[in-house]
Every structure is written in C-alpha cells, then in structure tokens.
Automatic annotation (TrEMBL):
Source species: Glycine soja (Wild soybean)
GO cellular component terms given for this protein: plasma membrane; side of membrane
UniProt xrefs under Pfam families: COB_C, COBRA
Family membership noted in the UniProt record: Belongs to the COBRA family.
Protein name according to UniProt: COBRA-like protein
Keywords: Glycoprotein, GPI-anchor, Lipoprotein, Membrane, Signal, Transmembrane, Transmembrane helix
Subcellular location: Cell membrane
Major site of localization recorded for this protein: membrane
Taxonomic superkingdom: Eukaryota
Amino acid sequence: MEHTMLPAIGSVFPRGVFAALLLMLLFSFSTFTSIEAYDPLDPTGNITIKWDVISWTPDGYVAVVTMYNFQQYRHIQAPGWSLGWTWAKKEVIWNMMGAQTTEQGDCSKFKAGIPHCCKKDPTVVDLLPGTPYNQQIANCCKGGVLNSWGQDPSNAVSSFQISVGSAGTTNKTVKMPKNFTLKAPGPGYTCGPAKVVKPTVFITNDKRRTTQAMMTWNITCTYSQFLAQKAPSCCVSLSSFYNDTVVNCPTCTCGCRNKTEPGSCVDPNSPHLASVVSASGKTANTPLVQCTSHMCPIRVHWHVKLNYKEYWRVKITITNFNYRMNYSQWNLVVQHPNLDNITQLFSFNYKSLNPYEGLNDTSMLWGVKFYNDFLSSAGSLGNVQSEILLRKDKSTFTFDKGWAFPRRIYFNGDNCVMPPPDAYPWLPNASSKLVFSLLSTVIATLASLLILLNQS
C-alpha cells in the first residue's frame, strides 16, 4: 500500500511567513478569552438580571430589579453580590427598597430633597437579614448570598426596588443603563448589554388578574473561572483498596509554599496558630490556607473502598484547608460513567445533572441540612464525608486503567485539578501474572513427573 508523503512545512511556507502565522495563531487563542465562560457541564448556566419598569413618576420611573441565578451548581457566597452600571443620561436614584448603594455621591445641586445616590456609576449591594419590614421587598435582604438553581431554586433569586429620577417618563424616552458589572463577591462574571424584551406579566395574589411592566430589559452575566482567580481553588487526591499507593494532589497545585508571600499559609502545628488566624480576619477574600504541598483551600479525596459481586463502593472526603472560610451550602459536581447507577448515598444529597440528552454521567452532591451542609474552616471540623454505593454495569465496569476514578470534579462550581493519569493507583497486574506463571510451572512439573512415573 502506497503512502502519500506530506511536504515539509518549510517547503510550503518560508520560515519567516510560518513564524508570523504561528504568532498570529497564538495571539488569536490568547485574545478569545470569552470562550472560557462556557461550562461544558452547565452549558446554559448564567445569571440573568431583569429590570422591570412598573410605574412612571413625574421625573422618571419605579423599577423592580430581579437577579436569577440560573447556574446549576455555582452560587454566590458571603459577603455577597454587588451590582454596578453606568447611567445613560443624568439619572439619580431617589430611593431604594431591599438594597442600597455603597456611596451617595455628590448631591449638592439638589435643594428640596436629597436623592439616595447621585453617582454616574452606582454600585448596589443587598441588605442584610433582619432589615426592618418597611425597607424590604420579596426576595431581598439575604446579605447578597444567592444559592444555585440546581441546589435550591427558591433561594436562587434576589430582588430590589429602585426609584429613578432625571430620566425619561415614557418607554420612548427612557434610556437603558450600560456597562453592567457583577461581582460575586470578586471578579469572574462578564455581563452583556441590556436588551429590551417582552414586558414581564405579573399575577395578583388572588390569581384573578394579571398586570404587566411598562418596560422590561434583560442583562445576562456569565462566569469564567480564569477571570475569577489566578490559581486553582481545589484539587483531587485518589486511593483504592487494591493498591497501597495514595495519589496526593500535585505539588504546587494552587501555589508553591516556598514561593508564596510570607503569612499566606499557616503551619497547623504552630503554637501561635490561634493568634495568627484571629489576626488575619475572617472576611478577607484571599485564602489563608494550611501549609501543605499543594496549598489548595479545598481538597477532595476519592477512595475506591470495596468491591462486591453486583456493586462497588466509593468514599468521598472534602477537606477545608482555608482558615478564612466556612463553606455553607457547598456542593460537589462529579463526572463518572457509572453515576447513572447510583444505588445508595450516605449523608449527602444527590441530584443527577443531564446537560446533554442521552448522557447521564454527572451528579451534584451536597450536605444534608443541619448535619454536614456546613463545611467549617481548617481544623478538626474542617471536613465532611460520605459513601456511594453503585451498581455495576458488567459491559463497562472495570478497575483497570483508572476507570474507577472520576473524570472531573467541581467544588462550588470551580473545576478542581486532577492528578496526572499516569499517577493513578493501578491494578497489581504484575503480581497476578507472577501467580499464573508459578501455577503454570507447578502444573508443568507435575505433568513431567506423571510422564516419568508412567514410563517407569
């Protein structure tokens, strides 16, 4: 059979042209950062902000702004979200319910009444739980904490009311704000422009009448882990009953201990541990982690525990190494081909995720309320664990070539770093071959002895 030889690259492109093309290709990959916001396990996940103009005022309008977290497993933790935008004209905020701006700005030109905020680019934050009822509206006042849609849809919505002045008073004169930003609480979300959509329809409490907004526009924000943080936030370690090897998280997964800034990690055996942790503060977004080889705030350990005739058993342990964070309402997303045959789950909640039709290999796990839904900071209480019993599919099940280990693990929506595949615990194939070889030798020897006995 003849093979067609491809010409060398240098014979097709001159060296200088090839180098230029290569640089252009690399530049194009580096500039298209928006594709990183796509999550293959949650392809339609986003945060949608709906701005409903519900009534007109003499110099503007009253609107209800609602934030929907349509992400299946990524939520917003304390200290919560902050939403910003730039006004299209010279609008001001006369008053708000359910939220407030972080700054008032310069309102010196107003004599009769002072607006709530006069900044061109206001930043809005949620009010805290316990806010007086006369300052609340529905779905407000959660301190900016927003659960994921897949885990707790009833708490995946946040709203506030805003009265806008110095704006248009009809749907033809009102201008939509622009340059929306969402921090949750740090960077990571990119928001698109506001788009006019079909007005929202509201149903009255007695469900006998419907009303609709004067105007409605939507803003869609998507998340990118690469924008949110420079280094990974979690890693995965592996072990199994059939191999004594424990595969730890790769060294320097989330940073290198000898290269980090002084005070960025704490030795758990230090006699001054308590004073160092208390002095560092609990509200800082930068992790203060326990000094480890991987330097990750979170480690997920997957242990293949037992093998039965019809089933196999896995133990999952999540350990918090971050002294600055108590993870409440945490969740874990695991991708493995046998997750379509989960038989029993101990001490975790479970939900199957089906991002694509006909594919059922992804599950979301989270703690049982008041039992282990709260993952405390680094220390003796800084871990939760559970076991999963899975039924074997005899056509696909094997312990060979790392099949029993997960393909991908997310913690709170962030992709965790897996060990390299060649480091996975392996089946003791060599020992089984040795046993077979010794057995063959014994059989051959016995056969030879029988032949000699027969000959004699």
